[in-house]
C-alpha cells in the first residue's frame, strides 16, 4: 500500500483532474516558495491558478496542506 498524502478531501479530485500526484504539486509549491519567500498565501494560490491552471478550491487546498520547506 502506498502512503497517501494526508490532507484535504480535495486531493483525490486534484489527482484525477490534473493527472499528477499530490506530491508533485507539493514539491512544485515548495520550490516556488523557496524562490519567492515573500509571497503570501493568496499569492501562492494565484500562482497555482495562473501558471498551472488549477481551480481556486484546488489551489487553496494545496497551499494550505503543503508544509513549509
TrEMBL record:
Pfam families in UniProt:
DUF4287
Checking InterPro entries in the record gives: DUF4287
What name has this protein been given in UniProt? DUF4287 domain-containing protein
Source organism: Goekera deserti
Q: What is the lineage of its organism?
A: Bacteria, Bacillati, Actinomycetota, Actinomycetes, Geodermatophilales
Amino acid at each position: 500500500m502506498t502512503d497517501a498524502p494526508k490532507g484535504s478531501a480535495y486531493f483525490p479530485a486534484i489527482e484525477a483532474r490534473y493527472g499528477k500526484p499530490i506530491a508533485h504539486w507539493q514539491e512544485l509549491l515548495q520550490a516556488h516558495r523557496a524562490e519567492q519567500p515573500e509571497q503570501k498565501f493568496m499569492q501562492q494560490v494565484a500562482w497555482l491558478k495562473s501558471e498551472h491552471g488549477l481551480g481556486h478550491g484546488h489551489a487553496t487546498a494545496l497551499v494550505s496542506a503543503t508544509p513549509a520547506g
